[in-house]
Description:
The structure is a single chain. The chain is α/β, with parallel strands linked by helices. It has one domain: Uracil-DNA Glycosylase, subunit E. It has six helices and seven strands; from the N terminus they run ββαααβββαβαβα. It has helices at residues 26-31, 42-50, 56-65, 97-103, 115-124, 151-162; strands at 3-5, 17-21, 68-72, 74-78, 93-94, 109-113, 135-139. The radius of gyration is 15 Å and the shape is globular.
Amino acid sequence: MTRSSGFPPVARADASTLILGSLPGRRSIAEQQYYAHPQNAFWRIMAELFDVRGDYESRCRRLTEERIALWDVLKSSVRPGSMDASISLAAARANDFEGFFAEHPSIDLVAFNGRKAQQLFGRLVEPLEPTRDIRQVLLPSTSPAYASMALDDKLAAWRRALLRL
């Protein structure tokens, strides 16, 4: 089975919020872009909250201007398809969060884009020695696979967390 690999973080040194997914899906890997699937609501939500528009580079730049970083919990794993449930835990390798948090000392909020990202972080990362107190929040997945929640409800949850209401 082929190993899927994630991307480097999209972040500036002054980032205060880190949004974590699990591992890029097939479409994202093919396009080398976070949340590339057209039915994924991530970029629509970011457009509503932070006026993130334009091509991928412009959207990423706008997020970093808002001091928001994007990354995934996993550096790599085996995942047939794009479903989070298909990620092999035995093959999962976490990203270097110790190094990331050392390079981004202003991070005070980690927002998980879905339960799988939160579970992977808890299993593979959190057991490491924490360097400081960082608030964590679970947000509804923006994935098209999570269709049981309306976009407006997802948007409201993301707004409360990221705008710190």
